[in-house]
Design a protein that fits this description.
alpha+beta; 3-stranded antiparallel β-sheet; 2 helices; 20% strand; flat
Amino acid sequence: MTEPSDHEIGHPEGLIPALAASATHAAYLRAVQAGRTLIMARDGWLVRIDPDGSETRLRALPMKHKVTAGSVFHFSAQLRS
């Protein structure tokens, strides 16, 4: 049995982000349809969304990384693997 080529592997791997987004959205819709209360990150806040659609800000979320506008980042090859 031969190993699949990079091209053969790359195509299915390229579909993963779209499949993940679709599954996440489907789970969100099922939760809303079931009348569940949701907790989500929205615009830098942790937000509770009640079944009636009302939103309550629970707390501000910390920034992941403090970045100055216009900054340039360089990543070494060692970090990518």
